[in-house]
Structures are given as structure tokens and as C-alpha cells.
Amino acid sequence: MRYCSECKKEKKGFWCDFCKNNTGNNFVLKIEPSIVKIRLHLIRMTHKRLGVKKFLFRVFVGWQETKGLDSVKYPEGVYIHRTVDREHDKYKEIIISAETGEITRNVSELLSQHIPNKQKRNSDN
Predict the structure, then answer these.
(1) Residue pLDDT, tens place only, 68-79
(2) 80-88 — which CB contacts under 8 Å span 24+ positions?
């Protein structure tokens, strides 16, 4: 629906029959309820400093497809929010199942004490 921006009455074109003027438009959209799955694939941000080889700060947020054994456990994939802050020695990661919305991993620790999952798996064998 299109409405006059001045008198707020419905109008058919650019000309308002009530104001007798060419006025701006206000639109009203009606959205019917439905189930829509939207996946934010990912947002990555890396902060580097001139003269420093490695990054100082990195953020990864978004949906990620699961592979290998994880694809059986999480067939719809997972949402990840990971922050690595080398400057302040912080590591934070939250992993949420895309299917159930359940938090499956929540880690907040010093980066200097963090052991990546790949190294943990290899040390278990």
C-alpha cells in the first residue's frame, strides 16, 4: 500500500488527491508468517599491524558445514563464533548446533594455554 507522507492517506500515484500535491510516499508491507531458513555463511575479520608478521586479532562468525564424523553428529552444520586476540592473550569460541540451537562448545581461555582440537585429537591416539 502507498500512503501520502504528509496527510498519511492512501494514494494511487505520485499525486495525493487529499493534499492536491505531488508528495513523498510511505509504503506499508505485509509479510505473511512462514518458516525460512537463513544461513549467514561467514564473516571474517583480521587485524594486522605493519611490521608484524602474524595477525593481532581475528574474528570468525557464521555457519559452517560439518565434515567427517561431525557431519553425522551435526547434519545441518554449526554456527561458530571464534575470537583470537593475540595482543591481549585471549581465545574464545562458541559452537552452536544449527539443527537444535544447543551450545555444544563454549571455550574462553588464555591464548597461550589454548590447545587446538587437532592437537588434542592427535595426542589421544
Answers:
(1) 777 788 888 888
(2) 82/58, 83/57, 83/58, 83/59, 84/55, 84/57, 84/58, 84/59, 84/111, 85/56, 85/57, 85/111, 86/54, 86/55, 86/56, 86/57, 86/111, 87/56, 87/57
